[in-house]
């Protein structure tokens, strides 16, 4: 209000006849009030813009941003090739706005099977531009000013600005590390929610909780008991659950990914989010989806039709073929959903070994392709700066990429501003990389260790 | 004791009625089944009742998760109905703006090439793939005659639609007014509303003169336009070449708009997705190139319309850094990146055409030549049925007043505008689809435009041939 009163008064006081004078006055008025909308307040910073630039400039081995450096599976590449060069030239034109029919049909079939439900492809599934846009639709559809959204720390960083942009208030609850058993390495399973603390975060204003399992960055795969705890609170407080399950296929050591929407009372209040990028190692295709009850998805459709409307057609067609193939091979050893986690588990173990050998303490992830490691042993490399605005791990990660060529992401990136200092000696590595890349990372680390211990 | 049971059963009936009234499905069934049970199942009944109350209570409570205020009333959409209808292959679809012609082969080849490169199947730069923003900056530097920084002055988005959304979310908020010229591409209104702002409409008006109806005959009244600007006016949305009428705003018309933008310190959101599709005798002028306009204009473009690949859903916003940076903030909080292989392919296609921008074979010029003959054919077919189409100066749509056909639809649902009824009738009885024009109007002007329908003519010859058959038969039936 005051912002607009200012130029209004000046308008009266400084009126000119000459249009040139008027326009220069007007450009002054323009400068005195911000041109951008208030919804952008506090959401302009973004860790990736900085760290991706650093990695591009300095890194020789990039274990930072989460994307595979190995190729997508052949069957999927072939499907895309058929979609773009084949006879179906209409695949270069608009498809159905809420999802290409072959894709929503196969998603309804697959998730129907996984959830033990009959799903209608037209109303229980919506395709989005990556899981990122699915999250955006959820917050825009359900979060109004004054609504609270519970976010579990550490969290995929976009949840916070998206809640804020929707006018909501994020309420944080941390996963707290318990000491591992004697002689064992810490596991992501050792990071847990305190039930009483979680219950205390739910209030009359709580509209939703965001669940990310398997969790980025820790790799935690929430157990049935942990999910039941969350589910009970959602039912009790009538809260929604936005369930980010993009890493659903990447679980290790025989663990099971449990879908919270399958727990009693949860189907009607959960939106499940998935990603072709993570499922099929094609992050650059930006195909994602939401699955849920029509009563919830109808509002996602409204946001979608007023923001992007359609998603690109050809990639959807290819992903549909990919899922068709996977449904046919479901549970068999040559299923990509079986092979990929098997390969990634080996890579995980390889990275764990490298890190242990040099004195970084890895937290063994139960899922995802991320691994968080404690770098306390290396702190002497990067002196602490008291009263610094920047969290220690961020300074460490920047120093490491510039001086060692190894890119990783500081764990503080996944915490709210107030809590960034809480776990500031951890960094996150992505191990969805070719063996050669992981070997190169190992070489850097080994060399670094030698330099440290050399007199 | 029997009276106790009786009262208990009565309570159940009343309670189930209450719950039913509250909108719980299935409770009546449950309560009826309870009433039929005997005394011995009393315990079972209470258990069943309490569990059903708990579930039904959560059923009632789940209704609290309605839509947010920002999307209130924005759920309906003309396309949902009319694209569904047109999916029927027996219908000749001249409705949705969907080319059924092939994109140029080099464009498809570039996409196939890009997808074969492993790295191009993973994330690229959020605000736009480097080779694409570079190519866009080159093309538009040439067109605009000014330096355009690929990293700060350009944002790549999901189609022209995504560009509009990023622009409006970045720069428009509650308390703002946004001027929208009618008829308008239908998404402008809901997007402005979703941003909490108020749309202010001004219609293009038909000025009489001459025999042939051209899109040039539809003009803004300068005094009327000036009256729409006030202190709250944050932006005006301009669409040139115009969808649906096909008007190509002249430099003089743009100057009037520009003068008002400067005078009132207003932004200009210039939707120029059809920028290359201008026909002989017309020139597309970019309002951002007028004096004083670069710093207040976001210009929107589309790969879908440039290369006949609407299914790629790639668009871009170009403007000064101090505006584009806010669009980038929206983008990084909505979808972050656009698909990589599509962006790489588009970059390569743009280089091909950039290099031949002095050559008539450049696709930017060959496509409008191809479309001009389709436009003329479409116009002729409509004229033969006795209609007077509005000949577009640009774009690939043509509007026509169908009231002269005097099709009596008074027995059909009263509340719908005439053009909606007409199009539905035409689809079912003539197997030809179009789009009703009142979908592109604000509430005040719907009556004015309800006699017009819009045809899309970016169609292959066989589609136009099929349309010709229908229209010729129609003419015979009228004779």
UniProtKB/TrEMBL annotation, chain A:
<keyword id="KW-0808">Transferase</keyword>
<dbReference type="InterPro" id="IPR015422">
    <property type="entry name" value="PyrdxlP-dep_Trfase_small"/>
</dbReference>
<dbReference type="GO" id="GO:0005739">
    <property type="term" value="C:mitochondrion"/>
</dbReference>
<protein>
    <recommendedName>
        <fullName>Kynurenine--oxoglutarate transaminase 1</fullName>
        <ecNumber>2.6.1.64</ecNumber>
        <ecNumber>2.6.1.7</ecNumber>
        <ecNumber>4.4.1.13</ecNumber>
    </recommendedName>
</protein>
<dbReference type="GO" id="GO:0047316">
    <property type="term" value="F:glutamine-phenylpyruvate transaminase activity"/>
</dbReference>
<comment type="subunit">
    <text>Homodimer.</text>
</comment>
<dbReference type="GO" id="GO:0070189">
    <property type="term" value="P:kynurenine metabolic process"/>
</dbReference>
<keyword id="KW-0032">Aminotransferase</keyword>
<dbReference type="GO" id="GO:0016212">
    <property type="term" value="F:kynurenine-oxoglutarate transaminase activity"/>
</dbReference>
<keyword id="KW-0456">Lyase</keyword>
<keyword id="KW-0663">Pyridoxal phosphate</keyword>
<dbReference type="GO" id="GO:0047804">
    <property type="term" value="F:cysteine-S-conjugate beta-lyase activity"/>
</dbReference>
<dbReference type="GO" id="GO:0042803">
    <property type="term" value="F:protein homodimerization activity"/>
</dbReference>
<comment type="pathway">
    <text>Amino-acid degradation; L-kynurenine degradation; kynurenate from L-kynurenine: step 1/2.</text>
</comment>
<dbReference type="InterPro" id="IPR004839">
    <property type="entry name" value="Aminotransferase_I/II_large"/>
</dbReference>
<feature type="domain" description="Aminotransferase class I/classII large">
    <location>
        <begin position="61"/>
        <end position="439"/>
    </location>
</feature>
<keyword id="KW-0963">Cytoplasm</keyword>
<dbReference type="InterPro" id="IPR015421">
    <property type="entry name" value="PyrdxlP-dep_Trfase_major"/>
</dbReference>
<dbReference type="InterPro" id="IPR051326">
    <property type="entry name" value="Kynurenine-oxoglutarate_AT"/>
</dbReference>
<dbReference type="GO" id="GO:0030170">
    <property type="term" value="F:pyridoxal phosphate binding"/>
</dbReference>
<comment type="similarity">
    <text>Belongs to the class-I pyridoxal-phosphate-dependent aminotransferase family.</text>
</comment>
<dbReference type="Pfam" id="PF00155">
    <property type="entry name" value="Aminotran_1_2"/>
</dbReference>
Automatic annotation (TrEMBL), chain B:
<keyword id="KW-0732">Signal</keyword>
<dbReference type="InterPro" id="IPR015421">
    <property type="entry name" value="PyrdxlP-dep_Trfase_major"/>
</dbReference>
<dbReference type="GO" id="GO:0016212">
    <property type="term" value="F:kynurenine-oxoglutarate transaminase activity"/>
</dbReference>
<comment type="function">
    <text>Catalyzes the irreversible transamination of the L-tryptophan metabolite L-kynurenine to form kynurenic acid (KA), an intermediate in the tryptophan catabolic pathway which is also a broad spectrum antagonist of the three ionotropic excitatory amino acid receptors among others. May catalyze the beta-elimination of S-conjugates and Se-conjugates of L-(seleno)cysteine, resulting in the cleavage of the C-S or C-Se bond.</text>
</comment>
<dbReference type="GO" id="GO:0047315">
    <property type="term" value="F:kynurenine-glyoxylate transaminase activity"/>
</dbReference>
<dbReference type="GO" id="GO:0030170">
    <property type="term" value="F:pyridoxal phosphate binding"/>
</dbReference>
<dbReference type="InterPro" id="IPR015424">
    <property type="entry name" value="PyrdxlP-dep_Trfase"/>
</dbReference>
<dbReference type="GO" id="GO:0047804">
    <property type="term" value="F:cysteine-S-conjugate beta-lyase activity"/>
</dbReference>
<protein>
    <recommendedName>
        <fullName>Kynurenine--oxoglutarate transaminase 3</fullName>
        <ecNumber>2.6.1.63</ecNumber>
        <ecNumber>2.6.1.7</ecNumber>
        <ecNumber>4.4.1.13</ecNumber>
    </recommendedName>
</protein>
<dbReference type="GO" id="GO:0042803">
    <property type="term" value="F:protein homodimerization activity"/>
</dbReference>
<dbReference type="InterPro" id="IPR051326">
    <property type="entry name" value="Kynurenine-oxoglutarate_AT"/>
</dbReference>
<keyword id="KW-0456">Lyase</keyword>
<feature type="signal peptide">
    <location>
        <begin position="1"/>
        <end position="18"/>
    </location>
</feature>
<comment type="similarity">
    <text>Belongs to the class-I pyridoxal-phosphate-dependent aminotransferase family.</text>
</comment>
<feature type="domain" description="Aminotransferase class I/classII large">
    <location>
        <begin position="91"/>
        <end position="457"/>
    </location>
</feature>
<dbReference type="GO" id="GO:0005739">
    <property type="term" value="C:mitochondrion"/>
</dbReference>
<dbReference type="InterPro" id="IPR015422">
    <property type="entry name" value="PyrdxlP-dep_Trfase_small"/>
</dbReference>
<comment type="pathway">
    <text>Amino-acid degradation; L-kynurenine degradation; kynurenate from L-kynurenine: step 1/2.</text>
</comment>
<keyword id="KW-0663">Pyridoxal phosphate</keyword>
<dbReference type="InterPro" id="IPR004839">
    <property type="entry name" value="Aminotransferase_I/II_large"/>
</dbReference>
<comment type="subunit">
    <text>Homodimer.</text>
</comment>
<dbReference type="GO" id="GO:0097053">
    <property type="term" value="P:L-kynurenine catabolic process"/>
</dbReference>
């Amino acid at each position: 209000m005051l912002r607009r009163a200012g130029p209004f008064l000046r308008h009266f006081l400084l009126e000119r006849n000459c249009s040139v004078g008027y326009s220069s006055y007007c450009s002054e008025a323009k400068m005195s009030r911000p041109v951008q909308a208030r919804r952008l307040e506090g959401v302009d910073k973004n860790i990736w813009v900085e760290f991706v630039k650093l990695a591009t400039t300095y890194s020789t081995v990039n274990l930072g941003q989460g994307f595979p450096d190995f190729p997508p599976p052949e069957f999927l590449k072939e499907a895309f090739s058929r979609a773009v060069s084949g006879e179906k030239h209409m695949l270069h034109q608009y498809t159905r706005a809420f999802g290409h029919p072959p894709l929503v049909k196969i998603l309804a079939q697959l998730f129907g099977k996984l959830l033990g439900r009959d799903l209608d492809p037209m109303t229980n599934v919506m395709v989005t531009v990556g899981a990122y846009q699915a999250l955006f639709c959820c917050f825009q559809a359900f979060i109004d000013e004054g609504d609270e959204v519970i976010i579990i720390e550490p969290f995929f960083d976009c949840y916070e600005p998206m809640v804020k942009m929707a006018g909501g208030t994020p309420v944080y609850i941390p996963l707290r590390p318990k000491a591992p058993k004697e002689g064992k390495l810490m596991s992501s399973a050792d990071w847990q929610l305190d039930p009483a603390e979680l219950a205390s975060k739910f209030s009359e204003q709580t509209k939703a909780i965001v669940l990310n399992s398997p969790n980025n960055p820790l790799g935690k795969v929430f157990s049935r008991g942990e999910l039941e705890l969350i589910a009970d609170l959602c039912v009790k407080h009538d809260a929604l659950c936005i369930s980010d399950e993009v890493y659903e296929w990447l679980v290790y050591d025989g663990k099971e990914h449990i879908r919270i929407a399958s727990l009693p009372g949860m189907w009607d209040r959960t939106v499940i989010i998935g990603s072709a990028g993570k499922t099929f190692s094609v992050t650059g295709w930006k195909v994602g989806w939401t699955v849920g009850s029509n009563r919830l998805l109808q509002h996602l459709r409204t946001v979608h039709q007023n923001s992007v409307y359609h998603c690109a057609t050809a990639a959807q067609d290819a992903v549909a073929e990919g899922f068709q193939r996977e449904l046919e091979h479901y549970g068999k050893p040559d299923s990509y959903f079986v092979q990929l986690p098997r390969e990634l588990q080996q890579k995980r173990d390889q990275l764990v070994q490298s890190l242990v050998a040099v004195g970084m303490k890895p937290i063994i992830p139960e899922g995802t392709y991320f691994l968080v490691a404690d770098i306390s042993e290396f702190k002497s490399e990067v002196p602490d700066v008291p009263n610094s605005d920047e969290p220690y791990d961020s300074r460490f990660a920047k120093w490491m990429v510039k001086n060692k060529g190894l890119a990783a992401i500081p764990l503080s990136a996944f915490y709210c501003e107030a809590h960034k200092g809480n776990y500031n000696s951890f960094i996150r590595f992505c191990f969805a990389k070719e063996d050669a890349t992981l070997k190169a990372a190992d070489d850097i680390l080994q060399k670094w260790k030698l330099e440290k211990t050399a007199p | 004791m029997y009276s106790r049971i009786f009262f208990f059963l009565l309570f159940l009936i009343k309670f189930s009625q209450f719950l039913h009234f509250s909108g719980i499905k299935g409770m009546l069934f449950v309560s009826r089944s309870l009433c039929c049970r005997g005394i011995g199942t009393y315990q079972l009944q209470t258990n069943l009742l309490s569990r059903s109350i708990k579930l039904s209570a959560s059923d009632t409570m789940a209704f609290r998760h309605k839509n947010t205020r920002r999307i209130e009333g924005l759920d309906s959409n003309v396309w949902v109905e009319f694209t569904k209808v047109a999916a029927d292959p027996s219908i000749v679809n001249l409705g949705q703006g969907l080319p059924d012609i092939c994109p140029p082969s080099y464009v498809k080849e570039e996409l196939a090439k890009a997808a074969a490169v492993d790295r191009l199947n993973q994330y690229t730069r959020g605000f736009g793939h480097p080779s694409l923003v570079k190519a866009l900056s080159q093309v538009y530097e040439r067109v605009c005659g000014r330096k355009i920084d690929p990293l700060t002055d350009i944002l790549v988005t999901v189609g022209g639609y995504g560009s509009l959304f990023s622009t409006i979310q970045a720069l428009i908020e509650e308390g703002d007014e946004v001027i929208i010229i009618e008829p308008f591409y239908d998404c402008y209104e809901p997007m402005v509303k979703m941003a909490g702002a108020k749309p202010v409409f001004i219609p293009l008006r038909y000025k009489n003169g001459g025999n042939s109806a051209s899109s040039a005959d539809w003009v803004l009244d300068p005094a009327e336009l000036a009256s729409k600007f006030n202190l709250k006016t944050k932006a005006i949305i301009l669409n040139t070449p115009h969808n649906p009428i096909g008007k190509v705003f002249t430099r003089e018309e743009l100057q009037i708009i520009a003068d008002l933008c400067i005078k009132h310190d207003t932004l200009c959101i210039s939707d120029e997705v059809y920028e290359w599709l201008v026909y002989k005798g017309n020139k597309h002028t970019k309002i951002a190139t007028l004096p004083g306009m670069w710093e207040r204009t976001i210009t929107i473009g589309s790969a879908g319309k440039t290369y006949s690949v609407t299914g790629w859903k790639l668009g871009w916003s170009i403007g000064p850094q101090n505006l584009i940076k806010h669009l980038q903030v929206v983008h990084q909080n909505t979808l972050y990146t656009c698909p990589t292989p599509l962006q790489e392919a588009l970059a390569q296609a743009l280089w091909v055409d950039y290099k031949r921008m002095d050559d008539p074979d450049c696709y930017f010029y060959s496509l409008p030549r191809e479309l001009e003959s389709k436009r003329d054919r479409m116009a002729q077919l409509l004229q033969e049925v006795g209609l007077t189409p509005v000949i577009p100066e640009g774009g690939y749509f043509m509007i026509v007043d169908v009231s002269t056909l005097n099709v009596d639809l008074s027995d059909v649902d009263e509340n719908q505008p005439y053009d909606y009824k007409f199009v539905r009738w035409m689809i079912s009885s003539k197997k030809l689809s179009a789009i009703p024009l009142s979908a592109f109007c604000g509430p005040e002007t719907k009556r004015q435009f309800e006699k017009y329908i819009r045809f899309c003519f970016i169609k292959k010859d066989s589609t136009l041939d099929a349309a010709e058959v229908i229209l010729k038969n129609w003419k015979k039936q009228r004779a």
